[in-house]
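Proteins fold. Shown next:

***
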Amino acid sequence: MNASQYEDGEDATVFVIIGRAFERKGDEPMDIHILLTAPDDDTAVREALNALAQEGYEEAELDQIGVLDGMPDEEPYASAYQGAMEGEIAIITM
């Protein structure tokens, strides 16, 4: 089984989460887009926040969550989508 499928055989959903992250409280925010696979939006948000914490961000404000219905044409989103399909969590900073 690959990372884009779950135990029940259902295909994974690729979520995109848009928000801002702060390296330290009080710092200027960085706009971020996060691409990852998850079975539902609650899990996607939890995993995104965990990934941000592991990358050293102390605080985040997540504004929107959506689902991608196919691979984007533009970089860095195409690579991030492919990584998400392989089980990675891609954090794109703007």
Q: What stands out?
A: The CA atoms of residues 60 and 82 lie 24 Å apart. The chain has two helices and four strands.
